[in-house]
Amino acid sequence: MPGQSTGRPVAAAPPSMSVAPAPAVPPRTTPVRRSRVPRLGGYALLLPATLPIAVGLGYPLVVQLIRSFQEYGLAQQFGRAAEWVGIDNYVALLTDGYVWTVIARSVAFCLANAALTMAIGMALAVLMSRVGRAARITLQVAMLLAWGTPVLATMTVWQWLFDSQYGVINWLLAEPFGMSGMRYHSWLIEPLSFYGVATVIVVWMSVPFVVFTVYAGLLQVPGETLEAAQLDGASEWKRFWLVVIPMVRPVLFVVALLQIIWDLRVFTQIYVLQRAGAPTRETHLLGTYIYSLAKEFSMAGAMATIMLVLTLALTAFYIRRMLREEEL
Amino acid sequence: MRIVRKAAVLAIGALALTACSNGTAEEPGDDAPATADADTEITLWLNGGDTNDELRQYLIDTFAAETGATLVIEEQDWNGLVPRLQTALTSAEQTPDVVEIGNTQAPTFTNAGAFADLTELYAELGGETLLQGFVEAGSVGDQVFALPYYSGARAVFYNKDVFAAAGVEVPTTLEEFTQAAITLQQANPNGVANFSGFWFPGQDWYNGLPWIWEHGGELAVQEGDQWAGALSSPESQEGLTEIQRLFTEGTNAPRDADSNEPWVPFNNGEAAMFSAPTWARWSIDLPECNKGVAADDTSDAANALRAEQQACNESKTGIFPLPGMEAGTPATVFAGGSNIAIPTMSENQELAQELLRIIFSDDYQTMLAQNGLIPANTDLASALGDDVYAQAALAAALDAKLTPPAERWADVEGERLLEDFFQQVASGADIADAAATTDQLIADTLN
């Protein structure tokens, strides 16, 4: 390492580097100082990244935590003193059976969606690495369009597709397929069918990210390794599960982790579908439930903190594993 | 981590500083002169386009003439208004000096202390002649904080040809109305698939309210300092039974739709009646009247065709105020509209009061009426005109009622409790059970 870093600049840019002291300094300083100076410099380099995060993320988080222990509503926003209530907000929420229903629903929705997204995404990525150029480009363009269209615009289209009066889906089912009972079917009014529609939309929107990331991972698998496995008599199936998958596992881990986080805090899709006519209370997930509490800032803060803990609990396994793999 | 914590402390410190500067805002003295130079500027927030350019220009010109100061009008969107007000009204730098707010949102902000006390000004600006339901929405006890701005009420539009073909007359009582819807739906004179006698989607609680109110029921009542849901009361239950009958026999509208754009199925011939604010007349576009004029064609010929089309639509469409329990009386319907108030944080209280005097002047109130809005001052409502639309609007509005003036009513709407409840009623749920559950949820939210 030192040889590389000192050798290259000198060769590449002699005029400007002639006064650069960096390569020359280390040999002259004492060992103690040498280890301290770069360290402080390293921290200073972290500062530009840390500061926006602290202000943009840390500050709201601290305020959210503080408020969650207060009674803080609109009146407090207009200057009435906020009263400290200890853990009352948390007790009120955690003793409410409805909150547990929402948590259970959210976890189930999140796991089902993340699993489905991963399965479909991986399948499509493998497909993409095996088909010809024209088919691959068509797939890629379709994926990019699904990924790139603004959420609210796509939600409007989906909403129209599933509209009970004028929707294309109902028309298709009733006219060409002859299921006349489905002509005015309401997709959103039953919670289960509501979550079915939501799953279709959420999975459709998140699959492209998985496809592209996994596809990039698959391209990194060296052909020689696969060829060697083939010579050793490994079947196509075995080569995929025992060679390819272990090699792209770090990628799969990161993608799955992100999917779980994203699907747990899903908001826009659920919110828009609720406004399109679903029974609100029976279809709340964590995101929309917190939003519905938002006029009582303290309650919303407490619920958001509970959700944060839940997210950490769900992903702790992954994060630990990822950190361990990084250390190796 | 240490860096993170330090930054957070810094950020909190910065916020505390700005909070302090808010607190030192200068209070204008009571005897401050109400006139000022043109450099003094006050801001009025109006929502949506209901107050048209002519009205706005009148306010700007009159305000300049009377006070010498400048009035700036900023238009806000109704969507997302509540969060915007939550932040703007708490800061002396950002707050408008006079603000329009939806009538169902008014109690929340009034109780939170967002508005300045207008009790002393109340009598001067109209007192008892102002729309009393709106005054109640803007009051806490005997103190008035937000005054009515304008109101708009719903009336029933109907297709005259379908009525004639089905042999149905314009109903004169609420009972007859339900019967008319059922008869129309059964008759379905044009043989349209999925035909509705009355367009009544499952989440449309605004249009269901008259049945509850006419039978003597309420959404919620105040008992001491607590609120209780009142959907389980025998009176409300009677009204809800009628509503369920209308849902099951008088409409085929989807249970998962709300009151948005009810004229779409009407224009398609899929509904014989719908209920909407009277300005919906401009959205009626029956196929038999459509002249196929391009929307961007502004030639004289196109305008003539458009006028002909509108006349045709209006000749084929009738309108009546929803009838009440007794023949000849209008039903108590839901009053849409808005309130107007001066934020406590405004540093121009005197000038803001001057603006209110102009808004509540006979001249401006008359202009509001001429533009189809029901003015705050009921004495001047006659300026609405005397065509059928104005008559229906006026009949409906004078008896119109608001949602309960509870501090947290906006939360009930935010949680969509009534949308859910009406949807259950529309889906054939047991009314008593559904009402008991919803009453509990309403009580939990309001207290």
What features would you describe in this structure?
The complex is a heterodimer of chains A (328) and B (447). By secondary structure, chain A is an all-alpha fold. Chain A has helices spanning 2-12, 14-17, 25-28, 31-67, 74-77, 88-94, 97-130, 133-148, 151-161, 168-174, 191-219, 223-231, 236-264, 268-275, 280-283, 286-292, 297-327; strands at residues 70-71, 83-84. In chain A, strands 1-2 form a two-stranded antiparallel ribbon. In chain A, helix 4 runs antiparallel to helix 17 (297-327), helix 7 packs parallel to helix 11 (191-219) and helix 16 runs antiparallel to helix 17. The longest helix of chain A is centred in the first third of the chain and has 37 residues, at 31-67. In chain A, 27% of the residues are buried. Chain B has 447 residues and is α+β, with helices and mostly antiparallel strands. Chain B has 18 helices and 13 strands. The chains are: A mainly alpha (328), B alpha+beta (447). Chains A and B meet through helix 4, helix 5 and helix 15 of A and helix 1, helix 4, helix 16 and helix 17 of B.
